[in-house]
Automatic annotation (TrEMBL):
This is Kinesin-like protein. Residues 547-556 have a biased composition (Polar residues). SUPFAM superfamilies: P-loop containing nucleoside triphosphate hydrolases (SSF52540). Residues 560-573 have a biased composition (Basic and acidic residues). Residues 501-598 are annotated as: Disordered. Essential for normal male fertility and for progressive motility of spermatozoa. GO terms for cellular component: microtubule. It comes from Pleurodeles waltl. Coiled coil: none annotated.
């Protein structure tokens, strides 16, 4: 479990996992030498790994378990009467060796007080042979370092004591430790793993340095036990060796970090047995607690289904978090007494050891990368590759190619080249190197994105942008409203369905059934519908003045063209309006009809009025379409005639050939077949016919493309005409004029695009109030009219904007661009 968690960690920090070793914690049992070894009770298997405990019923300790007599434990080795060296060989040697390869290692001694834990871990100082695992480990570490000349290994050491849940730095007395530093130790746990905050670590270059630290720690342990009145054997001690191994080859940026924890646990005997009290009781309580937490942690670690491991329950388990299985080679030495009298604690120790053995390990060596070395290596590599490239260029006669990053001048040059290439003044852009190619593409991208922005800006300027749902609603409404007119008035390709007449804006009729504002727009009161609604029309409509472009050129309604036409038209109209305002006598005010006219009649008027220009284009395009179709028919007929001629001639030739065959062929001296004149003429004719056929067919193909193109233009015109009509109709008959006036200043929305019911309902109340005010004020205070009028208009405007709030964002969003062109005159809402 812990191993899996460690794996996740290592991947997160992007280190390289060299190899994974899956196994369990190794457990050895070491018996303290005794002449009274209980041979009948403790039996060791021939494999030296199996330990059987057999208790006789009459044994005085059978109170331990009077039901069970036999226990069997399977461990990794039984060390009886083993020398310190043998113990080290069996327990520690490979762990230490692996630590230098980057694997973490932990060796731990567990057992009852006096069973030999400290002897095993630290050993005795009187006799060199009795030195324990720690001094031997230090020796092995420095020897192995000496044997690895290609590696630069740094060794650091710390020594921690945990006594009654308090942490002590056993090396805090070393001269290099800053005594002013906060000595409060705390176990911390972050992405680097577990460490003790405030614990001093000491760089050591020799075995002797390291041993000094060990002894300093041991001494401090004893002194502290006197000063603080604590029993040194009642604490847990963790001696840690930190290793960091770099390659001496500078080009190798990989390095490993590992640590070896050497743990001497406090005596594990049970509280009840000691019958202790006071200080001893307190110590025993802490030890028991921490050891039982250790046991719980071990049980949890052994259970692969457990997600949570209670490491933080005690200082000991927390400090050993990354040393108990997981990404660590862990070895436990279970120290026991050999005497029968201690069998109870021996059994307890063996049970603990067996549980420990179940903890899985997934030991991983992690390679780190030294960033400085990596950068240096890459720089070297780049320099080398550049040299290679220069040599290569010389060999293929490509001199003076620069591989450095492009400077601003070079980029500007490339930009100019790309622009010239795009406008056609440069045929090719010579390839120089990869950087230049990349910059060329980059410039293409820049230009493309600039153009996209420009196009979008132009479209936004020209069209009202609606979001899709609005557009769909609009189209549906549009279709419904115009279905009658559409069926009857548009869509006939022969051109008879439209009353097309083009009236220049300057010569617009003066009256209109739409009853629009005086001076804003000419009114055509002579239209049939208008006559019904307003019979006193003052002027008949003028004949439209057609200024058609050359018939040989197709008329398109590309956005650009329409723009220019619209601008021209608007300018003309403005001029016309100004002229009317300054020169013409005031026209008779024509009021808007109380109910909107039928759309069919209105459409006729529209085509003569605002829609005249587009109607003209539509008509001309359709005329061209009809002409091209007629030509297509003609050519098709011609082709059919030629085909008929080809078939006949081919038949005649076959007959001639058959005749020749029947009569016997004449062969010339050169071996060629001789034919008569008729046959010769037939061949010539067939050739001519085929030539004609090909020519006519090519012409037909061209015409076909032309017809398709014309058809598209006609369709576009038709659609545009309908859309404009719709807007015009709404503005002219459905949307109250005051609403249009109010919105005139806002100038960004055309009312023809909005659902009419919404517009009307917006201003009903305001309109009523306004009329009432007008009435009252004109009577009493005519001079206040402007003020109140402005106020009312402002209120109306705000009401409108409030109601329209939901329409505003949609114009900012990219969406469907509708054909509601804003720059067609005259609309109080339209703007260029
Ligand atoms: N294998 C051994 N060979 C010789 N002497 C030993 C051996 N094991 C233990 N002893 C001796 O037994 C005594 C108690 O051993 P030690 O202090 O190592 O026990 P301990 O388990 O560490 O006890 P504590 O829990 O009190 O620290 C010491 O005097 C030690 O020298």
């Amino acid at each position: 479990m812990a191993g899996r968690r460690n794996m996740v960690f290592s991947l997160r920090v992007k280190k390289l996992v060299m190899s994974v070793k899956n196994s369990n914690i190794s457990v050895f049992v070491r018996v303290r030498p005794t002449p009274e070894f209980a041979q009948e009770i403790i039996k060791v298997g021939t494999d030296n790994k199996t330990i059987d405990i057999h208790l006789r019923r009459d044994h005085k300790n059978d109170v331990v378990n009077n039901k069970r007599q036999d226990w069997s434990f399977k461990l990794d080795g039984f060390l009886h009467n083993a020398s310190q060296e043998d113990v080290y060989e069996a327990v520690a040697k490979s762990v230490v060796s692996k630590a230098l390869d980057g694997y973490n290692g932990t060796i731990m001694c567990y057992g009852q007080t006096g069973a030999g834990k400290t002897f095993t871990m630290t050993g005795a100082t009187e006799n060199y042979k009795h030195r324990g695992i720690i001094p031997r480990t230090l020796q092995q570490v420095f020897r192995e370092i000496e044997n690895r000349p290609d590696q630069a290994v740094t060794v650091r050491i710390s020594y921690l004591e945990i006594y009654n849940e308090n942490l002590f730095d056993l090396l805090s007395t070393m001269p290099e430790v800053d005594i002013n530093q906060d000595t409060q130790l705390a176990i911390a746990d972050d992405s680097r793993g577990v460490f003790v905050k405030g614990l001093s670590t000491h760089l050591t270059r020799h075995e002797e340095d390291a041993l000094n630290l060990l002894f300093e720690g041991e001494t401090n342990r004893i002194i502290a036990s006197h000063m603080l009145n604590k029993n040194s054997s009642r604490s847990h001690c963790i001696f840690t060796i930190y290793l960091e191994s770099h390659s001496r080859t500078l080009s190798n940026a990989k390095y490993t970090i590992s640590k070896i924890n050497l743990v001497d646990l406090a005596g594990s005997e049970r509280l009840g047995k000691t019958g202790s009290e006071g200080q001893i009781l307190k110590e025993a309580t802490y030890i028991n607690k921490s050891l039982s937490f250790l046991e719980q942690t071990i049980i949890a670690l052994a259970d692969r289904s457990r997600d949570h491991i209670p490491f933080r329950q005690s200082k000991l388990t927390h400090a050993l978090k990354d040393s108990l299985g997981g990404n660590c080679q862990t070895v436990l030495v279970a120290n026991i007494y050999g005497e029968a009298t201690q069998i109870e604690e021996t059994l307890s120790t063996l049970r603990f050891a067996t549980r420990m053995k179940c903890i899985p390990t997934e030991c991983v060596a992690i390679e780190h990368f030294d960033p400085e070395r990596t950068v240096k290596n890459l720089e070297k590599e780049i320099a080398l590759l550049k040299q290679e490239l220069i040599k290569h260029d010389i060999l293929v006669n490509r001199t003076l190619v620069n591989y450095e990053p492009l400077n601003e001048t070079q980029i500007a040059n490339i930009k100019t080249q790309v622009r010239r290439y795009l406008d056609g003044s440069l045929d090719e852009i010579d390839i120089v190197n990869v950087r230049q190619i990349q910059e060329v593409f980059n410039q293409f991208k820049v230009i493309l994105s600039q153009q996209e922005q420009e196009v979008e800006a132009r479209l936004r300027h020209k069209y009202t942008v609606m979001d899709k749902s609005e557009a769909a609603a609009f189209v549906a409404a549009h279709k419904a409203a115009l279905s009658d007119a559409e069926r009857q008035l548009v869509g006939e390709v022969d051109g008879h369905g439209f009353g097309i007449g083009v009236a220049p804006l300057s010569s617009k009729p003066t009256g209109s059934l739409s009853g629009r504002k005086k001076g804003k727009k000419s009114k055509d009161m002579s239209s049939p519908v208008a006559k019904k609604e307003a019979p006193a029309s003052p002027a008949p409509p003028k004949e439209p003045e057609v200024t058609s472009p050359s018939k040989t050129n197709l008329l398109t309604i590309s956005a650009k063209e329409m723009d220019s036409k619209d601008v021209l038209a608007r300018e003309q109209e403005v001029a016309s309006v100004e002229t009317q305002q300054s020169e013409s006598p005031p026209k008779v005010e024509v009021t808007r009809p109380s109910s909107p006219p039928p759309k069919m009649a209105a459409f006729e008027e529209f085509k003569n009025e605002r829609g005249s220009e587009i109607n003209r284009i539509f008509k001309e395009n359709k005329a061209i379409l009809i002409d091209r179709k007629a030509k297509m028919r003609e050519i098709t007929q011609t082709i059919n005639i030629i085909k008929y001629g080809i078939d006949n001639t081919t038949q005649a030739l076959s007959a001639k050939a058959q005749e020749r065959e029947n009569q016997g062929e004449y062969i010339s001296d050169e071996g060629q077949t001789i034919i008569d004149e008729d046959e010769f003429n037939l061949i010539v004719r067939l050739k001519d016919l085929k030539k004609q056929y090909r020519a006519e067919y090519d012409q037909l193909r061209g015409l076909k493309a032309e017809v398709q193109y014309c058809q598209r233009l006609v369709d576009q015109c038709r659609q545009r005409l309908l859309t404009e009509f719709d807007i015009w109709y709404n503005e002219s008959f459905l949307i109250p004029e005051n609403v249009q006036n109010v919105l005139k200043e806002g100038d960004t929305i055309r009312p023809g695009l909005l659902p009419v019911d919404k517009i009307v309902s917006l201003c009903d109340d305001d309109q009523e109030r306004f009329e009432q005010l007008q009435h009252d004020l004109f009577v009493d205070q005519p001079e206040a009219f402007a003020f109140y009028s402005a106020k009312i208009k402002s209120d109306q405007r705000h009401n409108y904007l409030k109601a329209m709030a939901k329409y505003y964002p949609m114009r900012k969003k990219p969406g469907v661009i509708t054909a509601a062109v804003r720059n067609k005159p005259p609309s109080v809402f339209s703007s260029a």
